[in-house]
Amino acid sequence: MKKTKMILGLSLVAISGLILVAADHIDAPATMSGDAGDITDVYAFQGQNTSNLVFAVNTQGLLSPNATGAATFKENVMVEINIDNNNDNVEDLVIQAIKRDDKMYFFGPVAPGTTGTSSMVKTTAASGNVTISAYGATALTSEQNGMKFFAGPRDDPFFFDLGQFKAILGGTASGFNNPGVDTFAGTNVMSIVVEVPKAMLGSSSTINVWAETKKKQ
Questions:
Q1: CA 143 to CA 148: how far, in whole Å?
Q2: 124: DSSP letter
Q3: N or C: which end of the chain has fewer CB within 10 A?
């Protein structure tokens, strides 16, 4: 149930390798929910089609290969990507993702009915759906209304050398090694990815982006 924010340039000029990521990766053990509401990372980057932006929200970090096959999105948890395009730190547009049976349904980008910690599903702004990919199977994607969608397990792309970080904090190392050791190697996440034409996100040259998970009350 976390919120992470980043500022992303929306210039239509192609920027090679443009990618921004915000992360706390996983809740502290004392507070970790351990369910589909735990966001690990939020990514936003320019698509292969440079007129598009890609948003990715990963949840349920540290899934072992054995645990990944049983991991699922929950039907009572909505993933919401929030987009502020006038720099007032309030969402002007949202993209919502909700699981029903074996599919993930997407709504938006659309103006939210309410802002802040409570949301209503924007059912009148349905943008598409995709069959949720199974672990170990070919990734399934769909393209509807000019947008592209994916939902399913993925290898965790986040890199962090936790052992070396602890050594730095403990005073037994002065910096990170190159290369380091990827603490998250061999672990997976449940990922939701949506690619959106920039024209759907407003005319601002920059946007603020954050993601939330919200449980049905």
A1: 4
A2: G
A3: C
Which of 211, 55, 58, 213 is CA-nearest to residue 147? 55
- pLDDT < 70 stretches in the chain: 1-35
SS3 content of the chain, % helix, strand, coil (to 5): 10, 45, 50
Measured CA to CA in angstroms, residue 32 lies from 27, 104, 140, 176 at distances of: 5, 24, 30, 27
CB 108 within 8 A of CB 96: yes
Rounded to the nearest angstrom, the gap between the alpha carbon of residue 48 and the centroid of all alpha carbons in its chain is: 18
Residues contacting residue 70 through CB under 8 Å, at least 6 positions apart? none
- The pLDDT tens digits of the residues spanning 64-122 come to 999 999 999 999 999 999 999 998 989 999 999 999 999 999 999 999 988 888 888 99
In contact, 51 and 198? CB cutoff 8 Å: yes
Note whether 43 and 56 are within 8 A (CB).
yes
CB 37 within 8 A of CB 57: no
SS3 167: helix
